[in-house]
Design goal:
mainly alpha
């Protein structure tokens, strides 16, 4: 649990999976969330599980696409701008190697 809370409350605002998908977790104003709010969000997922996923179903109908765990923690998952691929300039006249 501490891994999820610490990653979502870090400067990256995302777990490794969310970062790979270009997502980040913010509060309702778009600000970084703290460890406490990330912890509430994490335990809110258990409520979704106990309700047989009904908490996740709200994502389909909620205008801000918030699950029950997001509503409880007052958080929003946002898409981030895709990162530009890292490129290394190839000097003129050289052959690129793989």
């Amino acid at each position: 649990m501490s891994e999820t809370g610490s990653l979502e409350s870090s400067l990256s605002q995302a777990t490794l999976g969310k970062r790979a998908l270009g997502l980040r977790v913010t509060d309702e104003k778009g600000q970084c969330i703290g460890f406490g709010r990330a912890t509430v969000r994490h335990f809110g997922r258990f409520l979704n599980a106990f309700s047989f996923g009904i908490g996740y179903l709200s994502i389909a109908f909620e205008p801000r696409k918030q699950g029950f765990h997001d509503m409880v923690a007052r958080t929003v998952v946002l898409r981030t701008a895709p990162a530009a691929p890292a490129t290394t300039p190839i000097p003129a006249g050289s052959t690129p190697t793989l």
